[in-house]
Amino acid sequence: MTRRRFPVGKTLLYGFMSLWALTTIYPFIWVILNSFKPRGLIRSDTFSLPIGDKFTLENYVTAFKRVDIGTAYVNSIVISGAVTVVVMVLAGLAAYAMVRYSFRLRGFLHSMIIASMMFPVFSTIIPVFRMESSWGIVNTGSIWLTRLSVVLPQIAGNLSFAIIVLMGFIRSLPVDLEEAAYLEGYNVYQIFFRIIMPLAKPSFATVGIFTFLWSYNDLFLQMFFLRSKKFFTITRLLNEISSQAGTNYGLMVAAVVMVVIPVLVVYIFLQNYIIKGMTAGAVKG
């Protein structure tokens, strides 16, 4: 039997990547372990395992008693879900038009889409806030108008990135299928929803995942538009807990775990779509 030899370079690379993974994963493991410890033990014995008398669910019980976690989760899912669906549809249609149709000022429009990605949300928040205030959807008692005030700027903030990603993949798709569909009597929208979207599913999934996670984690816009506790998302609620809990590290780490778990679930179950969507457009055609 021949022994497989591992190159020194590959061994060093795997070792380096393993160490890097440990430095990335360990902080979250530390947070999870300490969330099951009594509050006083977190500071005095922070690196011990929560076993026996050191194990408690008090931090999570306190979190659910002091704050409305369920409502915050619902608000987060509704806002992030709406942003994701709208961005996928609008960006898909815009990318399809930019790739397949020739029209005046198309090059200028493409340059403007790229240029819009250079402006951070911090530079536009004041005019956006004043514009939405003039529409009467900011600081109202309506939960749907309040959610809309967050959804609209998040949609605008994600469109440019989504259009660029989808353009790269749609450009690699063969035109023959679309021409055949035209001969069968399909209109533009039928071609897009029945042919383009199924073929470009990995890229649409990638756009949807990144848009959802960006919206879910976006604290800056939520700080401006979500003022009442009944409208708080889970990220906004974590910020409120952090400011009120003070030195209650048990409550804080429990809240962090509850915020991060949905993000980890999305990455774990949809990581294949992320990889395929980011690479498929680069290797086709």
UniProtKB/TrEMBL annotation:
Record's bilayer topology term: Multi-pass membrane protein
Signal peptide: none
Keyword tRNA-binding attached: no
Ranges where the ABC transmembrane type-1 domain occurs: 73-270
Superkingdom classification of source: Bacteria
Transmembrane parts of this sequence: 12-33, 72-96, 108-130, 150-170, 191-216, 249-270
Subcellular location, principal: membrane
GO BP terms in the entry: transmembrane transport
GO CC annotations on file: plasma membrane
Record keywords, A-Z: Cell membrane, Membrane, Transmembrane, Transmembrane helix, Transport
Location of this chain's protein in the cell: Cell membrane
Similarity remark: Belongs to the binding-protein-dependent transport system permease family.
Protein's name according to its UniProt entry: ABC transporter permease
Organism: Ruthenibacterium lactatiformans
